[in-house]
Write a structure and sequence with these properties.
Number of strands: 20
CATH class of the largest domain: Alpha Beta
Bound molecules: ligand BES, manganese (II) ion, zinc ion
Largest sheet: 9 strands, mixed
Structural class: alpha/beta
Radius of gyration: 25 Å
Shape: elongated
Oligomer: single chain
CATH topology of the largest domain: Aminopeptidase
Number of domains: 2
Distance between the termini: 21 Å
Helix content: 25-40%
Length: 503
């Protein structure tokens, strides 16, 4: 692996407790409390016995007891962390447990963590760390005056491990390293999504893509207005027509397959820098959150950032169509009929259904690479959130096998998706009387909005296996999971990465 990247958090593996700083964390299962490991210092065993006896700590899942311990030779604070009854911890409970621990330390401004890692957590160490890193995400990065000194309050994590274990030290080290790459890329994605559009725009997305390409020797192309016009990206240009900044289409290529000419997997991420809705303007619909509308594109960039580091054995194409959906005397209007890159004409029945238009051109372009699979990831509809809430992305497409692989990858990383229907009836609804297609089903528009967004895309995909991930309800949150923070969640990132590893 490439060790060049410097990570914010220093993480080490140790055979015994060396540090006398920060906090000592002792994770405990309920049934372990009576039979404590002899590896624990006698004073701590005594203490646990006491708190167990007077029921101050039971070891219930996610229970925490933080106290000043102050014994000589030990870190000044002790934190008992409950793991619950079952020794077989699910990914979700590992993530939640590490997330809660991370947040507790963050609020206590503790910089160093020494954790007596129980063997039951060895296999899931990667998840544990990904959650711990995520829990430290700083949502106040743009503060200038009331800024905390360090971007991460938690700077050092030492895992104290047993010598004898089914999982070797080398394996644990690999898990730590991988979690750091993943954690750092998730932070990168969240930064892009959290920052408003005067910070993150087409130019900065392109700069990030160039940097990623240069560092990893990927092939890259970034098309601007002139090229897009020449090539015929009529959809992408129509959506961006009202904007001062140019439209862009970023194309990244990674070759990791042993067979150089293996058909690639195409990842297409929606890159709407800001979505006012256009003339069908968003009214009372939290327009201020619409800088999140490039989350799909940010996810694709985040994945490319570590494809090479993680040695993913696939060929992957990343395509990010970038536009701003604004109002001005140049903006596209409801009723305009535009001609897409594919040649289809589209009646604009709603300027707020812009994501599907820019994605459609990107899909048409992606087909030139003859991909084995097409994956679109997009904050495409609010309706996806209405259908499946803020813990599941909507999964749609034309290929149940591909969709199931992605769904399972999501399950394994607690980055979940749920299948939504895409029947012919809804696909028919996207036909127009005056053009080949319309971008919005005027008649029964309130129903199955996520499916109809995907239905529009299906006309451009053809027979290529395709899965669409609608993160409209999950990319940005006011209701974070225990290991997440408010705002960007990076939803879809772990799901896609796991899929690329497994497929
Ligand atoms: N970017 C929005 C979808 C969205 C809404 C994402 C809220 C995240 C949070 C998308 O472009 C949009 O406006 N969709 C419309 C579709 C409608 C006009 C068919 C929607 O969901 O209301
Ligand atoms: Mn919109
Ligand atoms: Zn949008």
């Amino acid at each position: 692996m490439n060790f060049a990247r410097i990570f914010c958090m220093k993480i080490s593996l140790q055979q015994r407790l060396k540090s006398k700083d920060g906090v000592l964390v002792v994770p405990l299962f309920e049934n372990q409390l009576k039979d404590l490991s002899q590896n624990l210092p006698a004073k701590i065993r005594e203490f646990i016995g006491k708190v167990h006896k007077n029921k101050a700590f039971k070891g219930a899942k996610n229970e925490m007891l933080l106290t000043y311990f102050g014994d000589k030779g030990l870190p000044p604070r002790l934190l008992l962390l409950g793991l619950g009854k079952s020794p077989a911890l699910s990914v979700k409970s590992i993530l939640n447990c590490a997330g809660m621990l991370g947040k507790k330390l963050k609020s206590g401004k503790i910089a160093e963590l020494n954790i007596l890692l129980p063997q039951e957590l060895y296999v899931g160490l990667e998840h544990f760390l990904i959650a711990l890193i995520q829990s430290q995400y700083d949502t106040g990065k743009l503060k200038k005056i009331n800024k905390s000194k360090h971007p991460h309050d938690l700077q050092k994590v030492n895992f104290i491990i047993d010598k004898i274990s089914r999982v070797s030290e080398k394996e644990l080290e690999a898990k730590i390293e991988k979690a750091q790459y993943i954690g750092s890329s998730l932070e990168f994605v969240k930064d892009l999504v959290n920052r408003p559009s005067n910070y993150v725009h087409g130019e900065s997305m392109a700069q990030n893509a160039y940097k990623i390409a240069k560092e990893n020797y990927y092939k890259i192309g970034v098309f601007g207005n002139k090229e897009l016009k020449k090539m015929g990206f009529g959809g992408l240009l129509a959506v961006n027509q009202g904007a001062h900044n140019e439209a862009k289409c970023i194309v990244l290529q990674y070759h990791g397959a042993p067979k150089k000419n293996e058909p690639p997997i195409a990842l297409i991420g929606k890159g709407i820098i800001f979505d006012t809705g256009g003339y069908n303007m968003k009214m009372n619909k939290k327009m201020d959150e619409m800088h999140q509308d490039m989350a799909g594109g940010a996810t694709v960039l985040g994945i490319f950032r570590i494809l090479k580091d993680l040695e993913i054995k696939k060929n992957v194409i990343g395509i990010i169509p970038i536009a701003e959906n604004l109002v001005s005397d140049k903006a596209y209007r409801p009723s305009d009929i535009i001609t897409m890159l594919s040649g289809h004409t589209v009646e604009i029945t709603n300027t707020d259904a812009e994501g599907r238009i820019v994605l459609a051109d990107a899909i048409t372009y992606a087909l030139e690479f003859k991909p084995q699979a097409l994956i679109t990831i997009a904050t495409l509809t609010g309706a996806a959130g209405i259908a499946v809430g803020n813990r599941y992305a909507g999964l749609l497409g034309n290929d149940p096998i591909l969709r199931n692989k992605i769904k399972n990858a999501g399950k394994e990383t607690d980055d979940r998706g749920w299948s939504l229907p895409l029947p012919k009836d809804y696909i028919e609804k996207m036909k127009s009387k005056v053009a080949d297609l319309r971008n919005y089903d005027v008649g029964s528009s309130h129903y199955a909005g996520a499916s109809k967004g995907a239905a529009f895309l299906s006309y451009f995909v053809g027979k290529t296996p395709w899965c669409h991930i609608d993160i409209g309800g999950t990319a940005f949150t006011e209701d974070p999971k225990p290991y997440q923070t408010h705002g960007a969640t990076g939803h879809g990132f772990l799901m896609l990465l796991k899929f690329l590893e497994q497929t």
